[in-house]
Amino acid sequence: MSQQVLDKETWPAEAEAAINDIRKHVKSAQVSPKLKSTNQNIYINLTTLENSQYCVEMSASGFRVVGRKYDDTSLSTIENMNYETPYALLNSISQKYRESFGGELMNKLLDLAKKSEG
């Protein structure tokens, strides 16, 4: 599969959109200030609700863990699993993400049920 090429201005916008989608379910997430983005990927530093730190590569192939601390790509040579979405990645690395996301979903469903009753 060929890598989708985005320009260097597009990747940060894509990364920020992904970060905004997961912000409520992680302790912190931001584009790495140290690792350079290219026209093929960008790196996101992520801390889960369990306080585990990761460096995640976002590319046309999806999201994958490339390090177990901020700005670390030491695992990038290993054939790590690519996840299509940041949700799928977090679902595999963070139990508290699943609880947080599930709780939010349940609250939204309860709100919908209340609105349909009234």
| Inertia-based shape | elongated
Cα distance spanning the termini: 51 Å
In quaternary terms, these chains amount to single chain
**Low-confidence runs (pLDDT<50, min 5 residues)?**
none
Could you give the order of the helices and strands?
HEEEEHH
> What is the helix content?
25-40%
Biggest sheet details: 4 strands, antiparallel
Q: Structural class of the secondary structure composition? A: alpha+beta
**Residues in β-strands, percent:** 15-25%
- Average pLDDT over all residues: 91
Number of helices: 3
Overall strand count: 4
Strand order of the largest sheet: 1-2-3-4
Rg value: 16 Å
Notes on the protein architecture:
By secondary structure, the protein is an alpha+beta fold. The chain has helices at residues 10-22, 86-93, 95-117; strands at residues 28-31, 41-47, 53-59, 62-67. It is 37% helix and 20% strand. The chain has a four-stranded antiparallel sheet with strand order 1-2-3-4, with helices on one face.
In brief, what are we looking at here?
Helix content is 37%, strand content 20%. It contains three helices and four strands; from the N terminus they run αββββαα. The chain is elongated, with a radius of gyration of 16 Å.
